[in-house]
Amino acid sequence: MKANPTVAIVGATGAVGAEFIGCIETRNFPVGKLKALASARSAGKTLPFRGQQVVIEELTEASFEGVDIALFSAGGSISKKFAPIAVKAGAVVVDNSSAFRMLEDVPLVIPEINANRIKDHKGIIANPNCATITALVPLWPVHKKNRIKRLIISTYQAASGAGAAAMAELADSTKAYLEGKPYEPKVLPHPYAFNLFSHNTAIEETGYNGEETKVIIETRKIFEDQQIAVNATCVRVPVLRAHSESITFECEAPITPEEVRALLIDAPGVKLVDDREKNYFPMPIDASGQGDVLVGRIRKDLSDPSGHSVSIFVAADQLLKGAALNAVQIAELL
Amino acid sequence: MKANPTVAIVGATGAVGAEFIGCIETRNFPVGKLKALASARSAGKTLPFRGQQVVIEELTEASFEGVDIALFSAGGSISKKFAPIAVKAGAVVVDNSSAFRMLEDVPLVIPEINANRIKDHKGIIANPNCATITALVPLWPVHKKNRIKRLIISTYQAASGAGAAAMAELADSTKAYLEGKPYEPKVLPHPYAFNLFSHNTAIEETGYNGEETKVIIETRKIFEDQQIAVNATCVRVPVLRAHSESITFECEAPITPEEVRALLIDAPGVKLVDDREKNYFPMPIDASGQGDVLVGRIRKDLSDPSGHSVSIFVAADQLLKGAALNAVQIAELL
Fold first, then answer.
1. Which terminus has fewer CB within 10 Å in chain B: N or C?
2. For this structure, is B199 an active site residue?
3. B161 labelled as ligand-binding?
4. How far does chain B reach from its first CA to its final CA, in angstroms?
């Protein structure tokens, strides 16, 4: 890869797109030229980047000429159509959708875990699902030391996971509720003001929804361990950004909460927030806007008297580590 | 018990107190006389009851003369002080606090599960914790048929569990957030607008907070099974009323989701809300204002290949089935 690559952002006006640009700026990613691509509707508008204005261009089949790295976050169907075009034009694609994640020749990468897989790419590297990233960054140091064989996750997922329009719907519908006005949901299938609901992806034959299935199968691929037994319950809560998760895991050998704490205290991408006296633990507002996965509530799983299981509670910015930051970290490693 | 008992409500101006009165009205509970008791601050104000106005009296040691049933919901310290006084004056106390729940001679009752224990009372009957009730009503029909030996619960608890002032704080702080104004939390220890946090009860030596410990020990007492291994993670979410819970349970013998569904379809106090095609499952706004525990997302726990475990998602009105309704049901059985 050249020293100052041309980087294209596909979905530049979306919630993750904005964070791509933010991450590139704050991390001083050595972009030569930035191309902001979006739908025709946004073409001609501008976006601020390093003190200048970048004009948004319409995404077309000709958009990728001269592009070295293309960061995609515009949904699965856009990725399916345009990622192969970008690869053909010579770009390496880091794709935030689920379109290519489970393909055998597409590395699925969380840099803290399997940066070594990046080199195997055939043009496309996939960014995992945000709920997967949030869980796996803190679980990896444990798994490496004492294999995790069973994993039970309940998520508390923010509006941001469904995009900027869903964030606006949460704010607007809550405002309407507080003013006693009616509000008809447009983006999400259920009323969102002071409410929560099962994740809005279709339920599959297993009874698990699409989001839950992603967490299950992506965990196995990233940990390169097909035997991990995973249960996920994905729930959308009325939080604007940053996902939280209640996680219980069972290891092959006995493990104590103190051992988990010792493994996580200096782990990359992890920040311990576990103050029992002050009752201060990971919260979405603290996770928002920063790159680490916050981890706390580290304690023995009292439902497993064998001493092989520990419970934790985590929170991470869905738009940063859950999406844009992870992708930019991958791009840096390119 | 006489046919038209005099009923005292202790904590009549609180969130649960208001629901006590509502439940007595809607269920046509045959109250002879209603005494509304509260702190001196509220004395002299009135409350509507059956088309008339009841004058709120200050709670004193003399308040319980002639009272047959006293419904307490004014916090543990009020219960500790005044419940024995009420009993001495001849009343039967149904107490919504945690003050007496674990005492051996105090029945801890969910009518759908152990109404038979009411007769053992020595003056006080305890109402379980709201998170406990929400979980156990749907688990009981399963446990009776195929013993539940392990239980992992993650809660999504509403503001109402912390009282009317916490509900107001959620609404007020959210309004301030949407208007870009600062807001200093007064009732709860953390900012609540579009945020969530670990339950605001003190963390014990086990690493579990007070709320989680209640769920663990109350489950064993109500099911009369000291061997059930329980793990609870209690989280406060920005929902006004109605608690939700993600529950995974493991039974002694193999069990299928279909068997669980068959056990729950006509179970007392349970309503199945499990429409996979429409992605329609239990939500707090649907649970609010009605008496059943909504149950859905009934599916195999994919992290237990032995087929002994099933996951469900539930929601129930914390102020009704989680508190006032359960207590009034107990009073009816008296």
1. N
2. no
3. yes
4. 7
Interface A-B: count of C-beta contacts within 8 A? 166
Domain with B304 in it: what CATH number? 3.30.360.10
Cβ A257–B207 below 8 Å, yes or no? yes
**Residues A234 and A265 occupy one common structural domain:** yes
Are residues A102 and A165 both part of a single domain? no
Inspect the interface and report whether the beta carbons of A283 and B197 lie closer than 8 Å: yes
| Same domain for A272 and A152 | yes
Q: Is residue A1 in a domain?
A: no
A50 touches chain B (CB under 8 A): no
- Pick from A71, A225, A76: nearest CA to A136: A225
- pLDDT tens digits for range A186-205: 999 999 999 999 999 999 99
Any CB–CB contact under 8 A between B276 and chain A?
yes
Is residue A207 located within the same domain as residue A275?
Answer: yes
- How many structural domains is chain B composed of? 2
Q: Domain check: are B65 and B163 in the same one?
A: no
Q: Are B231 and B153 in contact (CB under 8 A)?
A: yes
Task: Pick the residue from chain B with its C-alpha nearest to A309.
Answer: B231
DSSP state of B280: B
Mutant choice from A148, A188, A196, A234 vs B, greatest count of B C-beta within 10 A: A196
Per the document, the length of chain A is 334
Phi, psi (rounded to 5 degrees) for A11:
95, 40
Q: Which two tokens stand for residue B59?
A: 């709670």
What residues make up the domain containing A230?
132-318
List, as ranges, residues 203-242 from B with C-beta within 8 Å of A.
203, 206-209, 216, 229-231, 233, 235, 237-240
Same-domain check for residues A169 and A313: yes
Task: Note whether A118 and A236 are same-domain residues.
Answer: no
Let me know if B23 is a catalytic residue: no
Tell whether B93 and B171 lie within a shared domain: no
Quote the ipTM score.
0.96
**Tens-digit pLDDT profile for residues A139-188:** 999 999 999 999 999 999 999 999 999 999 999 999 999 999 999 999 99
How far B168 CA lies from chain A's nearest CA (Å)?
11
B236 appears as a binding residue in the annotation: yes
Tokens 């489970």 correspond to what residue? A102
pLDDT digits (tens, 9 = 90+) for A76-85: 999 999 999 9
Q: For residues B71 and B62, give the distance between their C-alpha atoms in angstroms, rounded to a whole number.
A: 16
Report yes or no on A46 lying in a domain: yes
Q: Is residue A289 part of a domain?
A: yes
